[in-house]
């Protein structure tokens, strides 16, 4: 068969990591470190890049070998799938020889397509980590106490702990691997060299349930003879939660601790293991004097000890490491991307106030830290304090940070220029006050480093409206700011909690911008681990705060995210894994709060809807407030629909039928209780009260247009075209308006410049999304300026409706492209990296409609071109060719079926 050189295979080995891989940057891994994945049955994916249109895979062959040499010789001693007749190219399960811990696997793939065969892909690899707890021979070390310079109080100041171990290595080393669990954060050094480029290692968990391990190949860092390994332990989420003054609310885990295992393999087959135990030396009397996620880091450079992580260092005055108890959680390999420095931000201004204090504006609200260059005398102290907003006099406004001190202090060692940044804390900020800086600070002395999970940016979006573009940019910065190994609500104040409700539909919008599949799969594990034996799920998970308030909407995010992972990434595994826990929660809520066919509990309601007064945080006018039981029951019915789907995917058809029967019964009770057939209103006729049953399909078909008319009338007549929903209603409003024929009203909401709306935030200087619609007029001490919960389905609507990119089948194997055109919108340009490759939609609607479409290989798309007839459409400047199949005319659209490739449609 003819070889087609235009087909290139991009190989990945993962659970959900599809994007961020260039054609010249082939990789096969769970995350950026291909070492130590936590499964013996990985799933393999590849993307096909082809010039020819209508390229579809018809077969594939995967080779997995134990050595690069065997793979190069086309010998798959671990797995040779042979030629498999299948179009599957994502989530293909490894089906070779049983893999054990430490197994190194090298693989490649080739495919046969509708237009020919490909060459073999470039090789990629993965390594299996320690799969069994018994394989950890290391001992937990730490110190379950503070030291005289520490303060164990409400505002704890706990210094970092430094550990070291010197050891001998024989000649002819073949491989050296470190397995490490460092709680709460750690830095790892071998012979003075820092290992890896990740920061704030490791991702937070409920450490009594699970602790995350990392694996590093350190072969190149080890030398024959004397070697030294060193670690620094910071507090992270392990010791930071202030339980002393609120033990009933805040969970604490103890003092930092570590488990480390260095395994050495020699060419003669012998092995050597260095483990953490009582032979290690440690001190807490080092330069990091305090590190607290809320309060900042204090670093005293005069306390540095040069060479502490290298051989020959005199550690005779250091203490012997203490053996301590395990935190209790199961050791699991990290399967989500590590946190890294992902970008930089340069200051835009630096001004001195009358009191001598300097205030620097970074021009962008973000999360991370400052890198500072400074030169001065030994003992000089520079204090950096962080904030999101300023007072009228130009000083920092910090009331909205509550009791977070958000202050870094650096003490100079003196002499030459010094460069410093914190190691174990991050800040959410735009402004920084600088005090004690020797001489006059210059903007060139500082740079901001943007810190979040190493997620690829997989989407782009632009319109002809600059305000909407800025809203999108604000969403982008807000989303990335709140990724820290788990999705948080905000990065700046004394909260920073993984609230479930904040990410319900928001996670779906985020997935168009960032490849967040691994992150959210990890978070589902956190949620399951936080579930109580009776089935209750908390509002915050991991449950750092003891909030088991039995809401429907916040814990229900558990199901919505499972559905998102399947929908966006084609991954059904999380649903199957968590189905039993999801069912347990559904049964718990029905048994505890079910009454007369309704669910009676949801205390948050439509959180943070625009109140009747600009000075109010929450509405007091009952006509604006949507009843909690209505929200709870509508959501429960929606979740019954999801559970039917999940049961089917899990191979439980009888349970699927049971969910369907329960849904039908509850729909009847809901409509009987809340629906007024004379006025076509639900309950008190709020937009949210009408929207939820309409969008969830609860409203009987014959009444849907009348119910929708009430939504429109309420929005237009009372809201004057502005949004009137809070966190709950905003998750469905943009798509709800569009699906029922009013994309123009959705566009008006999106592009409004005045209150309330996202554009209002922009016009008031926002560079991220606020916590409140009226965050500048309600109590500003309440308002976070970097929250994402009010985004709702806005980003989803940008991609699915304005650009017109939507999946028909999970993972975008089949795509529908239906862009919404509306008055005031001249063009939209968008791209999205699906599991199969990049899909693009770029349209212009000025003198006629012009639309550039790109469909990835191994997929098909149904495209809806605005046109009076099929004959009014051209492709590539000519009559529509035979490979663009006309289907029908529908609602002023010419509908075509296309395969992969790039198309240029025009219509008058």
From TrEMBL:
Residue ranges annotated for the Alpha-L-rhamnosidase C-terminal domain, each copy included: 804-877
Cleaved signal peptide residues: 1-19
Domain Alpha-L-rhamnosidase six-hairpin glycosidase: 458-801
EC number: 3.2.1.40
Record's catalysed reaction(s): Hydrolysis of terminal non-reducing alpha-L-rhamnose residues in alpha-L-rhamnosides
GO molecular function: alpha-L-rhamnosidase activity
Pfam annotation, one family: Bac_rhamnosid6H
Keyword tags: Hydrolase, Signal
Signal among keywords: yes
Residue stretches making up the Bacterial alpha-L-rhamnosidase N-terminal domain: 173-342
Domain of life: Bacteria
InterPro entries: 6-hairpin_glycosidase_sf, 6hp_glycosidase-like_sf, Alpha_rhamnosid, Bac_rhamnosid6H, Bac_rhamnosid_C, Bac_rhamnosid_N, Ig-like_fold, Rhamnosid_concanavalin
Broad class of enzyme this protein falls into: hydrolase
Domain Alpha-L-rhamnosidase concanavalin-like: 352-452
UniProt GO BP: carbohydrate metabolic process
PANTHER family found in the cross-reference section: ALPHA-RHAMNOSIDASE (EUROFUNG), ALPHA-RHAMNOSIDASE (EUROFUNG)-RELATED
Name of the molecule in the record: alpha-L-rhamnosidase
Source organism per UniProt: Mucilaginibacter yixingensis
């Amino acid at each position: 068969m003819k070889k087609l050189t235009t087909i290139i295979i991009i190989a990945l080995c993962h659970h959900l990591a599809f994007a961020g891989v260039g054609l010249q940057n082939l990789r096969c891994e769970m995350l950026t470190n291909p070492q130590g994945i936590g499964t013996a049955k990985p799933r393999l994916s590849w993307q096909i890049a082809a010039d020819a249109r209508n390229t579809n895979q018809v077969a594939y062959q995967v080779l997995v070998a134990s050595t690069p040499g065997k793979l190069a010789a086309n010998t798959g001693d671990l797995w040779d799938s042979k030629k498999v007749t299948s179009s599957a190219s994502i989530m293909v399960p490894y089906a070779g020889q049983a893999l054990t811990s430490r197994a190194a696997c090298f693989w490649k793939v080739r495919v046969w397509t509708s237009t020919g065969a490909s060459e073999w892909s470039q090789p990629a690899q993965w390594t299996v980590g320690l799969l069994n707890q018994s394989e950890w021979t290391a001992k937990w070390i730490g110190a379950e106490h503070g030291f005289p310079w520490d303060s164990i109080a409400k505002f704890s100041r706990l210094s970092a702990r430094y550990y070291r171990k010197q050891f001998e290595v024989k000649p002819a080393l073949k491989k050296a691997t470190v397995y490490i669990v460092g709680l709460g954060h750690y830095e790892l050094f071998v012979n003075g060299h820092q290992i890896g480029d990740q920061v704030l290692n490791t991702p937070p968990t409920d450490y009594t349930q699970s602790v995350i391990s990392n694996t590093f190949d350190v072969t190149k860092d080890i030398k024959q003879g004397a070697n030294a390994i060193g670690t620094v332990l910071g507090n992270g989420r392990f010791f930071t939660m202030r339980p002393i003054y609120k033990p009933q609310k805040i969970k604490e885990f103890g003092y930092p601790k570590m488990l480390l295992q260095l395994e050495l393999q020699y060419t003669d087959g012998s092995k050597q293991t260095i483990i953490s135990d009582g032979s290690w030396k440690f001190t807490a009397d080092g330069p990091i004097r305090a590190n607290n996620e809320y309060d900042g880091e204090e670093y005293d450079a005069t306390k540095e000890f040069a060479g502490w992580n290298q051989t020959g260092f005199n550690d005779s005055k250091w203490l012997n490491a203490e053996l301590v108890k395990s935190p209790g959680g199961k050791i699991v390999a990290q399967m989500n991307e590590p946190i890294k420095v992902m970008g930089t931000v340069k200051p835009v201004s630096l001004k001195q106030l009358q009191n001598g204090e300097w205030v620097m504006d970074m021009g962008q609200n973000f999360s991370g830290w400052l890198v500072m260059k400074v030169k001065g005398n030994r003992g000089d102290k520079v204090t950096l304090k962080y904030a999101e907003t300023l007072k009228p006099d130009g000083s920092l406004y910090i009331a909205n940070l509550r009791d977070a001190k958000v202050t870094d202090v650096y003490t100079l060692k003196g002499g030459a220029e010094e460069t410093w940044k914190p190691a174990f804390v991050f800040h959410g900020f735009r402004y920084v006050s600088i005090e004690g800086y020797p001489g006059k600070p210059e903007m060139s002395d500082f740079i901001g480093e943007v810190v979040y999970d190493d997620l690829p940016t997989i989407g782009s979006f632009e319109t002809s409206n600059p305000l909407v573009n800025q809203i999108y940019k604000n969403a982008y910065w807000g989303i990335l700011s709140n990724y820290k190994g788990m999705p948080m609500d905000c990065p700046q104040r004394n909260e920073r909690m993984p609230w479930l409700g904040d990410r319900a539909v928001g996670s779906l919008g985020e997935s168009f911008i960032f490849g967040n599949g691994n992150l959210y799969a990890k978070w589902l594990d956190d949620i399951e681990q936080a579930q109580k034996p009776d089935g209750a799920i908390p509002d915050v998970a991991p449950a750092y705060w003891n909030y088991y308030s039995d809401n429907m909407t916040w814990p229900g995010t558990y199901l919505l995210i499972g559905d998102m992972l399947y929908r966006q990434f084609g991954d059904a595994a999380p649903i199957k894994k968590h189905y039993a826990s999801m069912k347990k929660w559904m049964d718990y809520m029905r048994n505890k709060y079910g009454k007369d066919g309704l669910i009676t509990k949801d205390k948050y309601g439509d959180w943070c809807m625009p109140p009747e007064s600009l000075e109010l945080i929450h509405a007091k006018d009952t006509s604006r407030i949507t009843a909690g039981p209505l929200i709870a029951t509508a959501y429960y019915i929606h979740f019954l629909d999801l559970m039917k789907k999940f049961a089917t995917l899990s191979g439980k058809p009888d349970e699927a039928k049971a969910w369907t029967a329960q849904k039908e019964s509850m729909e009847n009770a809901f409509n009987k209780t809340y629906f007024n057939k004379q006025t076509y209103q639900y309950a008190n006729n709020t937009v949210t009260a009408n929207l939820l049953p309409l969008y969830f399909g609860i409203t009987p078909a014959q009444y849907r247009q009348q119910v929708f008319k009430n939504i429109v009338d309420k929005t237009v007549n009372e809201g004057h075209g502005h949004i009137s929903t809070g966190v709950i209603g905003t998750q469905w409003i943009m798509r709800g308006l569009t699906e029922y024929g009013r994309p123009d009203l959705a566009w008006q909401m999106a592009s409004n410049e005045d209150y309330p709306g996202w554009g209002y935030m922009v016009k008031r200087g926002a560079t991220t999304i606020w916590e409140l619609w009226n965050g500048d007029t309600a109590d500003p001490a309440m308002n976070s300026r970097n929250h994402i919960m009010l985004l709702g389905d806005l980003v989803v609507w940008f991609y699915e409706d304005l650009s017109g990119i939507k999946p028909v089948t999970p993972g975008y194997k089949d795509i529908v492209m239906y862009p919404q055109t509306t008055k005031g919108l001249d063009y939209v340009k968008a791209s999205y990296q699906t599991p199969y490759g990049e899909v693009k939609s770029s349209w212009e609607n000025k003198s006629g409609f012009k639309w550039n479409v790109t469909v990835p290989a191994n997929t098909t798309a149904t495209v809806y071109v605005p046109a009076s007839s099929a004959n009014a459409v051209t492709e590539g400047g000519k009559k529509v060719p035979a490979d663009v199949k006309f289907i029908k005319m529908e609602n002023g659209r010419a509908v075509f079926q296309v395969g992969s490739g790039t198309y240029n449609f025009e219509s008058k």
